[in-house]
Amino acid sequence: MDQRVSLITLGVADLARSRTFYEELGWEGQQVESTVFFQAGGQAIVLWGRGALAEDAGVPDTGSSSAFRSIALALNVRSRSEVDAALGEAARAGATITSPAAETFYGGYAGYFADPDGHLWEVAHNPGFTLKADGSLVLPDFSGS
Amino acid sequence: MDQRVSLITLGVADLARSRTFYEELGWEGQQVESTVFFQAGGQAIVLWGRGALAEDAGVPDTGSSSAFRSIALALNVRSRSEVDAALGEAARAGATITSPAAETFYGGYAGYFADPDGHLWEVAHNPGFTLKADGSLVLPDFSGS
Prior knowledge:
The structure is a homodimer of 145-residue chains. The first copy, chain A, has 145 residues and is of the alpha+beta class. Chain A has one domain: 2,3-Dihydroxybiphenyl 1,2-Dioxygenase, domain 1 (Roll). Chain A is 21% helix and 36% strand. The first copy, chain A, is built from three helices and ten strands. Chain A has helices at residues 15-24, 50-57, 80-92; strands spanning 7-12, 30-32, 35-40, 43-49, 71-76, 96-103, 109-114, 120-125, 130-131, 137-138. The first copy, chain A, starts with 6 loop residues before the first strand and ends in a 7-residue tail after the last strand. The interface between A and B is large, with 80 and 80 residues. Strand 1 (7-12) of chain A pairs antiparallel with strand 5 of chain B.
């Protein structure tokens, strides 16, 4: 199985609310029936009804939207001030800041927010990871660390 | 906030079990202390302890690993036979097939599996989405559809 991810689908309770939230972050999406697609680098983020996603995946929608998802998305940026700016933008768009920006153990700077459905996003500046001009991330060779 | 995703961190109960699972899919990762990093196109997939992720994100680990996560990752491939092959590989590696491969409403072919911690992956062939040679996905312009 190829080592990549093509799409990330976020199950949402209210498609319009979630679309507005991501658009207030400056994102531009395309709505197709009851789905919103955002091109995000070489992949796509998709907003879709929580119940529809559960049904499509063949799992029960346990309905506990406050349960910890055990998954987090991260946006890596180029400076600490970009971390602060993005978290501020998210808060103004209605996100909950679950962990304010702070120094990290790896010498970086990061914080987390939760989107309207509780999906966790970390915004991080990690000087050890390469961000190419197109925004793609390249891990270091950790064997020398 | 830039319209992209740099990392996807999957909270796991047993790092060795999860690392073995993804390596049995053919993935190659680098372990750094209690974290495993997989380069996945222009981003990274990270395996990390569920409790550590919750603490880092500033949210309670509600412990209900069987709750629906309301999020799914997808790997898009180039043919129906590649869908079958990837789902077969996942099943042999110990995944639960939550939705066997079948025709989709959009004229494609897809199925889902859950990894050892219940993280959902869809494997899909969608003839309407472009997969570039490097595996990156490009959404169509839906306005004409």
